[in-house]
Amino acid sequence: MQITAALLAAVPLGTAWRAGWARLGSAQFSSPQAGGGRHFVSSRCGNRKSEVMAGKPKLYYFDGRGKMESIRWLLAAAGVEFEEEFLETREQYEKLLQSGSLLFQQVPLVEIDGMKMVQTRAILNYIAAKYNLYGKDLKERALIDMYVGGTEDLMGFILMFPFLSAEDKEKQRVFIVQKATSRYFPVYEKVLKDHGQDFLVGNSFSWADVHLLEAILMVEEKKSDVLSSFPQLQAFKRRISSIPTIKKFLEPGSQRKPVPDDKYVETVRKVLRMYYDIKAN
Amino acid sequence: MRYLFSASYFPGIQKLSSMSGKPRLTYINGRGRMEPVRWLLAAAGVEFEENFVETKEQLEKLIKGGDLLFQQVPMVEIDGMKMVQTRAILSYIAGKYNLYGKDLKERALIDMYVEGITDLMQMVMMFPFTPAEAKAKNLASIEEKATKRYFPVFEKILKQHGQDFLVGNRLSWADVQLLEAILAVEEKVPAVLSGFPQLQAFKTKMSNVPTIKKFLQPGSARKPPPDENYVALVMSIFNLS
């Protein structure tokens, strides 16, 4: 706790910001599995030891973004260290299938707290709740769920992008930017403007903030000035990017995956035997 | 006294959910993405009202009015919120009415099961909109996924713990969603449960839960299987070709 207080004192931030950051700080302290905790002294050494025995979460997926990337973001934002096993061959995938680890024969798979979790949304919900990034009550959770639903839909348009033909890519790029600037970004811009707080929900850092930052950066990769008419989102992007755990994740050498390339597409197609054409929206 | 406050007495005023206190569902008069919400509210014994979108103009008016956060339906007015995003709505209802497990781990199981079932239901939901020449293939795909990927999972879960419900030995959102999916697939593939004795027993037990039994009776808010009229209506309202 003392270290967090020192950090807060050192960084010139507004009160709400400190409140939000303190919330994150307390999440790291109360959660024994605080991977970022190597820089913090845990006040609960006993619990931490048993969690260390339980091990870090382990992610099974391709070496690329896809559906796993939001999970990497959320774990990283929560300061949780995790391991990854990358699917590179069909044989590897079939072995995983035969092991019975994949409840619905699909990845992502995350081994966490003794569970073999599948279904991206279930995994994200669990992580968010465990690390206090899911609001303080049902109504805050409802807001977070709504906002995350929107950014998930937006990022969904980008998910299939690498699999499209060159011609369809151009069409999809236009579609993504149009949806981002006319349907999604205006909503978050307004939410931030209306309450004037640093975070989307409850004046506290939450999953919704992490997810929105991820979405903003992904859309910017398609059109770098896409935030030009969204001053609130520009400020939001700066603020959230400078949260220590997120800043670390944004630096080279982190587990954040790069923009998917042809090699990634080839690997996915080969491993999943997914050779059919994917259409643009 | 109650009549004085009904919408019909004040013709200009749109009926507000706050007047009756019941949740108010805005969607097309058909299953689509709203049906799981109807199921869950009904299973929880919660009465609700419906506001049917019948024309493109009505949808545009709703969008202009700012009631639809992402310009989309479903929208559910509940507890002073105008909720959108089906999953968010369902999670809220499940949480509020104690259908979401007793702790984080039970919630994780419920979420996993519900997400899997939703993937299957997505195929069923899109089926009416498949072009005629692709319908047979699509149907075969639904049957394959149901019998090879999804139903075996729940058959095994029920067999292994021998309990009546999927999670934590009590009724949850996962059970309601699974029953809905079983019935929806059966409408397309009548003998689909033939290799699944546990699911057959589950279907019978669940159908007899009083709130669900009521929902399954004629005259309830449950919507019929989508037909050509429904498809045409959706196409016209959402400008699909």
UniProtKB/TrEMBL annotation, chain A:
What Pfam families does its record include? GST_C_3 (PF14497), GST_N (PF02798)
- The enzyme class is transferase
* Keyword Iron belongs to the record: no
Q: Which UniProt keywords apply?
A: Signal, Transferase
The record's listing under SUPFAM superfamilies reads: GST C-terminal domain-like, Thioredoxin-like
* Gene3D superfamilies, A to Z: 1.20.1050.10, Glutaredoxin
Q: Which residues form the GST N-terminal domain?
A: 55-135
Q: Which domain of life is it from?
A: Eukaryota
- Give one GO biological process term: glutathione metabolic process
> Which InterPro entries is this protein grouped with?
Glutathione-S-Trfase_C-like, Glutathione-S-Trfase_C_sf, Glutathione_S-Trfase, Glutathione_S-Trfase_N, GST_alpha, GST_C, GST_superfamily, Thioredoxin-like_sf
- Transmembrane stretches, by residue range? none
Alphabetized GO MF terms: glutathione transferase activity
The catalytic activity of this protein is classed by the Enzyme Commission as 2.5.1.18
Specify the GST C-terminal domain's residue ranges: 137-261
Identify the stretch annotated as signal peptide in this record.
1-22
Q: Which PANTHER family match?
A: GLUTATHIONE S-TRANSFERASE, GLUTATHIONE S-TRANSFERASE A4
Which family does the UniProt entry place this protein in?
A: Belongs to the GST superfamily. Alpha family.
The protein's name: glutathione transferase
Please tell me the species this chain comes from.
Answer: Cairina moschata (Muscovy duck)
Upper taxonomic lineage: Eukaryota, Metazoa, Chordata, Craniata, Vertebrata
From TrEMBL, chain B:
Q: Which PROSITE patterns match?
A: GST_CTER, GST_NTER
SUPFAM superfamilies in UniProt: GST C-terminal domain-like, Thioredoxin-like
Q: Does the keyword Transferase apply?
A: yes
Keyword Membrane present in the record's keywords: the answer is: no
Q: What is its EC number?
A: 2.5.1.18
Domain (GST C-terminal) spans 103-227
Biological process terms from the Gene Ontology for this record are: glutathione metabolic process; xenobiotic metabolic process
Q: Give the superkingdom in one word.
A: Eukaryota
Q: Where is the GST N-terminal domain?
A: 21-101
Enzyme kind, highest EC tier: transferase
Instruction: Give a GO molecular function annotation for the protein.
Output: glutathione transferase activity
List the Gene3D superfamilies hit by this protein, alphabetically: 1.20.1050.10, Glutaredoxin
What the entry lists under InterPro entries is as follows:
Glutathione-S-Trfase_C-like, Glutathione-S-Trfase_C_sf, Glutathione_S-Trfase, Glutathione_S-Trfase_N, GST_alpha, GST_C, GST_superfamily, Thioredoxin-like_sf
Q: Which Pfam families is this protein grouped with?
A: GST_C_3, GST_N
Q: Supply the alphabetized keyword list.
A: Transferase
* Entry's family note: Belongs to the GST superfamily. Alpha family.
The name on file for this protein is glutathione transferase
Q: Which organism is it from?
A: Cairina moschata (Muscovy duck)
